[in-house]
Amino acid sequence: MAGNRQAARLRDLLARGEFILAPGIYDGISARVADRMGFPALYMTGYGATASMLGLPDAGLATYSDMLGRAEMICSVIETPLIADADTGYGGLLNVQRTIRGYEAAGVAAIQIEDQEMPKKCGHTPGRRVVPAEEMAVKLRVAADARRHEETLIVARTDARTALGLDEALRRARLYEEAGADIIFVESPESEAELERIGREVSKPLLANMVEFGKTPRAEVDRLKKWGFDLAIYPVLGLTVAAEAMRQSFAHLKEAGTSVGDPAPQYDDIHGLMGFGEVWDFEKRWAT
């Protein structure tokens, strides 16, 4: 099973102490572009998936079926291990079991669930509320037990920092470690000092969210490694860059009445990126 092999590959990289740098992907094009770049992992962002599927904010509006379908599509066009956002697990304990098994079957290597109340909200927006820590710990035990392959990784995210403070977020991180999470994700710390403290107090592999326009200061890989982090995701980097490039191109088209002289760069091998070469080879082989 491809997802099983990719999960084993991701586990091996973490065990060997290799830092995992994972750009955010959200659709087939972003997946294909990133897959060609040689990253150790990719990250399916809930923000980007919701925006690209529905044109709506990441506010609990994408369903389990929406996100599973997006994960299945992405896994079908990449070879790189995928870390995928699964929100809160989409409900109670049975929902969590179904989510883990569905994502795992789709080929996801590492599945992220968070301790927000439903409907969840984007991690760097106001008004987030979290469930009791012990309730989330049970979810994580269910998630670990639901795996059909021991290689599949469970990422536990806590959103407690914003509403309840860093001490509570770290208490939850330790509880989630004990509950069976393989990777810990403390969302939206607000200073470099907080990042350093998280690195000191979390013992399992630790994920940093280097989100554009967020609450957390962005730091380069060398400093994240020094502070004790093992993974870094850049969930909306590709999305924001693509949106701005489109805005520039469309503005030029409206003003100039032509695409000639467009200031935005063009991807000059879009046919190759999308796999048209394979289509043409197939047609030549089976031409009558």
Automatic annotation (TrEMBL):
CDD domains in the record: ICL_PEPM
UniProt superkingdom: Bacteria
This protein's UniProt keywords: Lyase
GO MF term (any one): lyase activity
Lineage summary: Bacteria, Pseudomonadati, Pseudomonadota, Alphaproteobacteria, Hyphomicrobiales
UniProt entry tagged with the keyword Lyase: yes
Annotated protein name in UniProt: Isocitrate lyase/PEP mutase family protein
Origin species: Reyranella aquatilis
Keyword Protein biosynthesis: no
Gene3D superfamilies given in the database record: Phosphoenolpyruvate-binding domains
